[in-house]
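User: Can you predict the 3D structure for this chain?
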Amino acid sequence: MREAVILIALDGRPIIRRQSDGRTAASIPDDGDHWRAIWENRARLAGTAHLHPPGCPRPSQEDRTTFEAIEKALGRRLDWWIISGDDVTVTHRFVENGGWWTFPVYGFVPWIETLRQLGNEEDIVGAEVEFKRFVHVKIGDGHATLAVGVENDVLVVSRALCSPKDQFCRRTGRKIAQHRLVHKDAVRYRTLRPYREDVSLVEQAVAAIEEDRRGNQAWPRWTQGEKLEAVGKNADVPNA
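Assistant: Here is the predicted structure, written as structure tokens:
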């Protein structure tokens, strides 16, 4: 079982999924990419979920040290999910300098099977994203190119921003966005949400980016407060 983690948004949806190359699941990942993803999504982060070997549904000492450091950096409490075989638990600390309390979780949680699958996969996250199309979006006086794909019934949208001062063409934006769609080193530029076959890819992609922009301080200032609108033929530009 490989080390894998999901960041959970305040609305219960998964934000980012990632694996660590070659490491086995035993504790929450403690590396630069994981810390950066948490910090960039801090305004909408409810907690994280990671895998443990079967029979170990409680946090390790290393887990608790990492939990404490992250909560101290963010200045608030989070929920810490652990998936161990068929067991699912959530750990929380209710008071400053208090103990950690772990509770069993019952019922259906939609992203748990996705996390289990990540832990059993041989390839990195994003390696099997099925590219669908490009969408071009106007943001105020600037633009964004979105590369849209689907992986395991999850919509994956990556972005390449062109500020009002930039002059790169759509072709360059497509190359950047598509690279970010399939490479794990660019997860900070990717947005995830459940894929719906009954809604157009353009509508889903724009909604995903709009949701990601709200409360996410990783987006540049020139995009904040600006209207986001798909442009081009049929309000989007297919892969040509």
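The longest helix spans residues 61-74. The helical segments are 32-40, 61-74, 112-120, 170-182, 201-213.
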